[in-house]
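Appendix B. Chain record.
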Amino acid sequence: MAQTQVVMETDKGEIVIELFDAQAPKSVANFLKYVEAGFYDETIFHRIIAGFVVQGGGYKADGRERRKDINSLDYTPVENEAENGLKNLRGSLSMARTSDPHSATSQFFINLNDNAFLDHPGQDGWGYAVFGKVTSGMDAVDAMAKVPTAAGDKPVEDIAVIKAYVKQ
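Structure tokens predicted for this chain:
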């Protein structure tokens, strides 16, 4: 069975993401809910830590939280699936969360390096749930990682997601 793929058109280039439907079904369903609602369209990658991760899925270019714009979505956090055996390797996508292991909603990050310390059980007994990987477009992700940042690891220039959609 073919894995679900999502295309993210960014102003740094196109990123194709293969989702791990069987290994991370709750995280994948959660991510697809946001993709299919157009949630990620016109958002930014708001956090960049060179050599570590690029993070997106939460904010618009004007700094407003994206979730304020689509009231019809269910923003219930997804259960942490970090015990699925998948690793936070370069190019993998993981659910971003707070210190509460079951707090992930729309935000995700792409690993720029192998980050084994994020794998289950991690430093907090849980780790970060991997649910996909970049299959093409890592050059676009690497270009994001080169953008200078200011306080809070915020890029000094916007890195926009123009559109995200399920690849047919």
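Further analysis of this model is presented in Appendix C.
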